[in-house]
Amino acid sequence: MKKSVYLMVFLGALAGAGSVIAGPAVKSEDGKYLDKDGNPTWNKKDDGTWDWYTFSGYRRYHAECHVCHGPDGEGSTYAPALRVSLQTLTYDQFQETVVNGRTVHTAGKESVMPSFGTNKNVMCYIDDLYVYLKARADGALARARPEKREAKVDAIKQYEDACMAN
Ligand code: HEC
Questions:
Q1: Residue span of the structural domain in which 161 resides
Q2: What is the number of structural domains in the chain?
Q3: Is 86 inside a domain boundary?
Q4: What are the b/e assignments for 9-33, b being 16+ CB within 10 Å?
Q5: N or C terminus: which one in the chain shows less Cβ crowding within 10 Å?
Q6: Is residue 11 part of a domain?
Q7: Does any domain span residue 62?
Q8: Could you tell me what percent of the chain has a pLDDT over 70?
Q9: CA proximity to 41, closest of 126, 124, 125, 131
């Protein structure tokens, strides 16, 4: 009895996984892939097709963050390499830092991560940014634009419109 329940849960998880091929994603909802903790994550199919969020995050990162954090999350003399930070930073810590910012004083020098909490061009795409940087941190995405990608589904467009109008 117990065994068959486990088997059904396992088969159910497999069926739900759908197009997930490799990487941390265990399921997808409306074009967004989620890991076992329910946090957004990247997905790359066998044929090299990336999820929409990784692609979108690549673009947003290079519009809002690269000036300080360097191209491709590689870091600069001013700000840390987020490709490295996201190897240990959790989704919640990432969000907290981007929303609130952080100012650190060391040896008379000031290091400022601005607060983006009221910047819609960042806040409406915070999952995109996280997913892209996670793909870089996991070593899944090279220093390049993810060319081949899934379509932007209606649910993503609707979320974006609602968020930007807010
Ligand atoms: C004006 C420059 C600047 C911009 C623009 C900027 N950051 Fe930062 N960021 C920093 C600095 C400097 C730090 C390090 C702060 C410190 O010393 O702790 C930092 C730290 C962070 C951290 C914490 C890293 C860690 O290892 O703890 C995250 C996450 C982060 N930034 C994300 C972003 C994202 C995402 C964007 C784009 C939306 C962005 N930053 C844009 C300057 C910037």
A1: 19-165
A2: 1
A3: yes
A4: eeeeeeeeeeebeebbbbebeebbb
A5: N
A6: no
A7: yes
A8: 87
A9: 131
Partner residues linked to 138 by β-bridges: none
| Angle made by CA atoms 124, 125, 127, in degrees to the nearest 5 | 120
**Ligand 1, atom 24, residue with closest C-alpha:** 85
Distance of CA 110 to the CA centre of its chain: 28
Q: Which tokens belong to 25?
A: 């994603």
Residue 44 phi, psi dihedral angles, 5° rounding: -130, 125
Q: What is the mean pLDDT of residues 39-50?
A: 95
Q: Is the CB of 79 under 6 A from ligand 1?
A: yes
In the chain, the largest separation of any two C-alpha atoms, in whole Å, equals 67
Strands, E assignment, the chain: 27-29, 32-34, 40-41, 102-106, 109-113
pLDDT at 23: 82
Which of 67, 68, 121, 129 maximizes ligand 1 atoms within 8 Å of its Cβ, making it the mutation to test the pocket?
68
Residue 132 has pLDDT above 90, yes or no: yes
- 3 lies in some domain: no
**What is the pLDDT, as a whole number, of residue 6?**
54
Residues 35, 23, 37, CA angle at the centre, nearest 5°? 15
Half-sphere CA count of 128, side-chain side, radius 13 A? 24
Q: Is 36 in the pocket of ligand 1 (CB under 6 A)?
A: no
Predicted pLDDT of residue 71: 98
